[in-house]
Inverse folding.
């Protein structure tokens, strides 16, 4: 015999399922604040406004109070979310122009960029100091990717390498296992 549960499944709160990108949208946040004020003007309680907009009663009350003291302008909110970047777009353009000159133009021994070298150039040329780990994010935003230098022996004989690839390597590949080393 199957017994029915006396408990109902409680649906997840809308805030838990809401898209996080929407909560970081400044225009949408301002619209929500203005909507709270309009709902209050229609006679709804702060608790009902909070339920409808899926915010806390304290937030709804704060928005209503701010609007009463400063009008719509008081509900403008922050100009941006998060910390102000140390390097603005103009600084990053200048930094990239310096990088395009190459490491040797900045006094480094070889033509290889490392994050430490890039950090030093950024500080010297733009006056901005970033940690190497964060600088990597900046470099990705500038569409720079990590590169590894091709290591070759100084004594390398290109003609001998070509001959080996053309004549010896194909013979080694076509031989049965164990027999290839006899021919070399």
């Amino acid at each position: 015999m199957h017994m029915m549960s006396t408990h109902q499944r409680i649906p997840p709160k809308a805030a838990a399922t809401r898209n996080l990108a929407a909560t970081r949208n400044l225009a949408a946040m301002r619209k929500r604040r203005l909507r709270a004020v309009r709902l209050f003007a229609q006679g709804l309680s702060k608790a009902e406004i909070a339920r409808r907009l899926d915010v806390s009663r304290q937030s709804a009350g704060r928005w209503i109070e701010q609007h009463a003291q400063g009008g719509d302008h008081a509900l403008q909110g922050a100009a941006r979310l998060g910390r102000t970047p140390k390097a603005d777009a103009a600084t990053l353009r200048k930094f990239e122009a310096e990088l395009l000159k190459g490491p040797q133009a900045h006094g480094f021994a070889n033509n290889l960029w490392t994050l430490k070298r890039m950090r030093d150039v950024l500080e010297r040329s733009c006056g901005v100091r970033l940690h190497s780990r964060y600088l990597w994010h900046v470099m990705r935003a500038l569409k720079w990717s990590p590169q590894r230098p091709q290591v070759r022996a100084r004594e390398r004989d290109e003609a001998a390498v070509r001959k080996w690839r053309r004549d010896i390597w194909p013979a080694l590949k076509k031989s049965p296992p164990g027999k290839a080393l006899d021919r070399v």
In short: Residues 1-21 have pLDDT under 50 and may be disordered. Residues 158-174 form the longest helix (17 residues).
